[in-house]
Amino acid sequence: MHDSETKPFFLTSEFLVFVIFLMGLGITASESPSIDARFFWAAATVATSFYMLSRGIAKSGTRSRAHDPREDLDLTRDKHD
Prior knowledge:
Elements: H1 13-31, H2 37-59
């Protein structure tokens, strides 16, 4: 049986690629005279934004198995005591 919920973030290939990219970018920025801190932070911000967007798309349309207290609310208008 296949779970409908997506994997946790740390088990995805996107996260692995994201971490490796940031590590490579950090090493390159620290060693290269042509890449400064401003470029590093701009590239890291763009990469983080795209990573969050990809996770949002991956999780859209999937249901969580966690309990939602809103499902327990009785919202009927006919309240008989």
